[in-house]
Write a structure and sequence with these properties.
The chain has 127 residues and is mainly alpha-helical. It has 5 helices and 2 strands; from the N terminus they run H-H-H-H-H-E-E. Strands 1-2 form a two-stranded antiparallel sheet. The longest helix has 35 residues.
């Protein structure tokens, strides 16, 4: 016997499902003058939390879309700014003041950061 088969095959679930289908068919067959106030009452009472959640989800999705658009614009502006001649000349001047070359030399070796677990300081790193 599979897990949970008694839950999905119980009579109470089947009867509840049939009752819900019957009530929905009955509600759809009501005249408009009765159906609209009934629907409005359900929206304001039983369905209110679900409708609120749906509205909040829509607002969150719209805010996320606007945020992604702003981030894309900011990234495009930052990329365009890196190619400005004024910024390039300032970077060259600062590299000259600090004694840095424009490009990395051939003997460049990247540093590795190794985490050393110590019980006294879990955030320490050894370079």
């Amino acid at each position: 016997m599979a897990i949970g088969t008694d839950r999905y095959a119980s009579r109470s679930d089947t009867l509840l499902f049939i009752a819900c289908v019957g009530l929905s068919i009955a509600a759809l067959s009501l005249p408009d003058q009765w159906r609209d106030p009934l629907a409005q009452g359900l929206r304001q009472s039983v369905l209110a939390p679900f409708l609120f959640l749906q509205r909040q989800t829509e607002l969150l999705a719209a805010a996320r879309y606007r945020y992604d658009a702003v981030v894309a614009q900011r990234d495009s502006a930052a990329l365009a700014a890196t190619f400005l001649p004024e910024l390039r000349s300032e970077n060259t001047r600062l590299r000259g003041l600090l004694g840095l070359s424009a490009k990395l030399g051939g003997g460049y070796v990247s540093a590795e950061i190794l985490h050393q677990p110590e019980p006294t300081n879990p955030l320490s790193f050894v370079v």
